[in-house]
Write a structure and sequence with these properties.
Helix content is about 55%, strand content about 15%. It contains seven helices and five strands. The protein is globular and about 45 Å long. The two termini are about 25 Å apart.
């Protein structure tokens, strides 16, 4: 599965800790991240992460493009809802795209742990069905 890992500045240590704790699961998947977050995850875990631009510089939009093209299967985005973000419209658009395209979106550690445990058990195979149905719809 293709998994995006994103974190606002005040949540970066949490996503690093999460990645360390679950690297045995994450290493079996294709990981994508915004610039700083991805670099920090790679340094802490040794995981291979495809890096996009920093979120405010377009990284959120790059991940959004993958979502719109059905190339992303899950987004783990540790948001900081208590701090104003200069790129909030991009964040909102990313979340909206997840809803439109049925992409699981976890925005906190609790939901992320549920998702990662589902990955571990193989419970997210329904993503293949969604992708298949969307492909059939495009062909019509």
């Amino acid at each position: 599965m293709n998994i995006a890992l994103i974190a606002h500045d005040k949540k970066k240590q949490k996503i690093i800790d999460f990645s360390i704790a679950y690297q045995h699961i994450l290493k079996k998947h294709h990981l994508f991240a915004t610039g700083t977050t991805g670099t920090m995850i790679m340094e802490a875990t040794g995981l291979n992460v495809h890096l996009f631009q920093s979120g405010p510089l377009g990284g959120d939009q790059q991940i959004g493009a993958m979502i719109a093209n059905q190339e992303m299967d899950m987004v783990i985005f540790f948001r900081d809802p208590l701090t104003a973000q200069p790129h909030e419209p991009d964040v909102s658009a990313l979340m909206r795209l997840c809803d439109v395209h049925d992409i699981p979106l976890a925005t906190n550690i609790a939901a992320s742990e549920i998702f990662i445990r589902g990955l571990e058990r193989g419970d997210l195979s329904w993503r293949n069905i969604v992708k298949s149905n969307r492909k059939k719809d495009k062909e019509k």
